[in-house]
Amino acid sequence: MPRKPPARVRQEFSPALAAGISRLERSRNYLGPGAVRTALRLWREFIADPYRRLRVESEGCGVWECCGDPWQAREMLEGVLLSLPRRTAGELRRHIDDEW
Question: How many whole angstroms separate alpha carbon 79 and alpha carbon 82?
């Protein structure tokens, strides 16, 4: 039986990047399934907010997927970029920097 591809990651990333991200999420203890996608979403939402400079630091609800800190998400994405091979890291960097 063939492996099931990651559900959402395949839609916006190339197959090589999606495979690299899935491999990292399985091999690193600080990443879980979908952690990179969640971090990218948090960062994109922060960047898209025109009032981001007026953002007041608060704890929110405490759930990472809902109210996670965008700067922690960006740091995690930097760690992922350093762990990926050069070509796939470049593609992920383009996804991150397109919004900035």
Answer: 5
pTM higher than 0.90 = no
Q: Is 76:39 a contact under the CB 8 Å cutoff?
A: yes
Dist. CA 73–CA 75, nearest whole Å:
5
> Which tops the pLDDT comparison, 50 or 17?
17
Torsion of CA 26, 27, 29, 34, to 10 degrees: -30
Over range 60-77, report the average pLDDT.
79
Closest CA to 39 of 74, 14, 89: 74
Beta strand spans in the chain (E): none
Mind listing the pLDDT tens digit for each residue in 10-23? 457 888 999 999 99
Any idea what DSSP says for residue 56?
P
Distance CA 84, CA 69 (A): 23
